[in-house]
Write a structure and sequence with these properties.
With about 625 residues, this protein is an alpha+beta fold. It has 12 helices and 30 strands. The strands form 8 sheets. Strands 3-30-29-28 form a 4-stranded antiparallel sheet. The longest helix is centred in the N-terminal third of the chain and has 12 residues.
Length: about 625
């Protein structure tokens, strides 16, 4: 044994093992490549097929195709690996351009200047190219092209049967939550998910109520779920229910005296810094701040300022990045902002009466607390300066919005912001993801997400550098994840490259065979009770069959059956001596008309009272005594 171990030590560990065939990463990402959009349809065949990319990104990709980096495989214009430096300008002639470059790329030539020494050797990676005067002229025109947007590849997280109206990604980017109008919340885990892209858990927070908002806690150990019901729920990271907030008394007129919301919720968001505080808004016209450790009552009630008395729903709410301000979008189109400070009340610090002409669907603060974005059903997106809220900085129109959950989001560096559009009737554009430049306040690009479904929620995760967009209609729903193999990290890259596990012989389970199923009481048929039912139908008592009417005299064919001494019963028993018309006659007259006959032939009256009545003794007439 010792000799075998010594011999084995001279061979590598992989000696004798069979190498498994592996699918290359290039082919995997080629399968998830996005098709070209309308923006690239007019491009020539030599242009880059990347959809919705800026011109600087296209020129960068074209330079990669002309001068490929060694040890890097490029298939279908997709480069795997770190980006390469721009090619060095060659001045040796046309012969050098046609030769194939072997080895690492040449360093960029040094620029002649007084500050640099021409004879100084270049140590380390090549210097970036120096911007020329022509580039300076184009920099103003292509300033928005500095942002490298991950749009080359796409995967879809399916599972919902209706539009996906809520989206939340935890801070690490490993777990994704999606809520839908089909009343369910699906949980996806990139680390445990394979190429089938299936959710590992599905929950239904409130039966028969749409899911309207989902928000992770700052520590990502719990999440808030807001539905169309009046009670929000808290779940742990694995989808187990931790608690449900109380519902208020709907018969109390003053909302400040109720312990909770009385009608359906519209939005909810966790505090960005404090993991015990959440904010909710409702159709009852109030915003409420809750403590997750006390589900029986809220901490504070905020009633917005209204132009006219009544109850106007609060359609959306939002915290700023530090949790020092609260913004609420009111159903009358106004924006109201409250500063969280000691002794603050329901009076807003900032009030914009006619911010939008219709309901506001989303509000978003920038991290520097200078910019506020608002999205509305009136097909507009407005940019506000929090230091001057009288008028908006910019209003982007012609952005269809048919859903009350359509949001607006910032890019990781907050130089861009994006929102989705809805599909209009008789429209051929489909659902788009519109990306805008925050500094220039102009449209950067439009990305086609779905040809038939509307884009509702969107998010740009800072750690993954991937864009999430939820789509759907009345029949289907899903979450599109846009990424770039060269720009994005983890997330979709992890699960796409993980093939589904093959079934082994250990997974085989033989189905049990029941040879005589009717021997068990569970599978035995019930005995026939046909004869018993026929016997019961014949029994008038068990079948509760009503008695048939009797023929002959009497009211309704009924004759008294008791052995009584009533005169009418006796007469009717004797064979119908009185016709049925006796009920319409006077009983006294009907009897006295037989008085003369009874005196002569007493067979009618006298036998009836023979046993019970004594002999009648009639008094003699007084007239006879007077005559005597």
């Amino acid at each position: 044994m010792e000799e075998d171990d010594e011999i084995r030590a001279h061979f590598p560990l992989s000696f004798g093992k069979k190498s498994k065939s592996k699918t290359s990463i290039e082919s995997i990402h080629n399968a998830t490549r996005r098709p070209s959009t309308t923006e690239t349809a007019t491009a020539t065949a030599t242009d880059s097929p990347f959809p919705a990319l800026s011109s600087s990104s296209k020129s960068w990709l074209n330079s990669l195709q002309k001068n490929p980096k060694p040890n890097t495989v490029i298939t279908d214009d997709v480069e795997i690996g770190p980006p390469r430096p721009p090619p060095a300008s060659s001045s040796t002639g046309a012969d050098d351009d046609e030769d194939v470059m072997i080895g690492p790329p040449r360093p960029a030539p040094a620029v002649d200047s007084d500050d640099e020494d021409d004879d100084e050797p270049v140590i380390g990676p090549p210097r970036p190219p120096v911007q020329s005067d022509s580039d300076e002229e184009l920099s103003d025109e292509e300033q928005g092209n500095q942002h490298r947007i991950p749009l080359s590849n796409e995967i879809v997280l399916k599972g919902h049967t209706k539009v996906v109206s809520a989206l939340a990604i935890d801070h690490s980017g490993s777990r994704v939550l999606s809520g839908s109008y089909d009343y369910t919340v699906r949980m996806y885990d990139f680390q445990g998910m394979n190429a089938r892209l299936e959710s590992f858990r599905q929950i239904e927070p409130s039966e028969g109520h749409q899911v309207r908002s989902i928000s992770w806690s700052p520590s990502a150990d719990r999440f808030l779920c807001v539905t169309g019901s009046a009670q929000a729920k808290i779940y742990d990271r694995d989808g187990l229910t931790m608690g449900e907030f109380v519902k208020g008394d709907m018969y109390i007129r003053d909302l400040k005296n109720t312990k909770g919301h009385i009608t359906g919720l519209t939005c909810g968001e966790w505090h960005p810094k404090t993991k015990e505080t959440i904010l909710t808004s409702s159709e009852d016209g109030s915003l409420r701040i809750w403590d997750v450790n006390d589900f029986n009552s809220q901490k504070q009630v905020i009633k917005p300022k209204l132009a006219k008395p009544g109850r106007t729903p609060v359609t959306t709410c939002a915290w700023d990045r530090e949790g020092k301000s609260i913004a609420g979008g009111i159903g009358d189109g106004s924006i109201q902002i409250w500063s969280v400070k000691p002794g603050w009340g329901s009076r807003p610090d900032i009030y914009v009466a006619n911010a939008h002409s219709d309901e506001i669907t989303s509000l978003k603060f920038s991290s520097d607390r200078r910019t506020l974005l608002s999205r509305s059903v009136d097909c507009s997106l407005k940019v506000w300066d929090l230091r001057q809220m009288k008028t908006e900085l910019k209003s982007f129109q012609d952005l269809p919005n048919h859903y009350a959950q359509t949001n607006v989001a910032f890019s990781p560096d907050e130089q861009l912001f994006l929102t989705g559009t809805s599909v209009e009737r008789d429209s051929t554009t489909g659902g788009l993801l519109c990306i805008f430049d925050r500094e220039k306040l102009e449209l950067v690009s439009k990305v086609g997400i779905s040809p038939t479904c509307s884009v509702v929620q969107c998010a740009w995760h800072p750690k993954l550098n991937q864009i999430f967009a939820t789509v759907g209609d009345k029949h289907q729903g899903g979450t599109h994840v846009l990424y770039d193999p060269t720009l994005s990290t983890r997330g979709a890259l992890v699960c796409v490259a993980r093939a589904p596990r093959k079934k082994s012989i250990d997974d085989f389970q033989a189905e049990p065979v029941i040879h005589n199923p009717h021997a068990l009481p569970l599978f035995r048929d019930q005995p026939s009770r046909k004869r018993q039912r026929e016997k019961i139908l014949k029994d008038p008592l068990k079948s509760h069959k009503p008695e048939a009417p009797m023929n002959g005299p009497g009211f309704g064919g009924r004759v008294g059956v008791t052995k009584g001494s009533l005169l009418t019963q006796y007469l009717l028993k004797q064979g119908g001596m009185i016709k049925e018309t006796w009920m319409d006659e006077d009983p006294r007259e009907a009897i006295l008309k037989y008085a003369d006959v009874a005196e002569k032939d007493p067979k009618f009256i006298a036998p009836a009272y023979a046993e019970t009545q004594p002999q009648p003794v009639f008094a003699k007439s007084d007239s006879e005594d007077e005559d005597k």
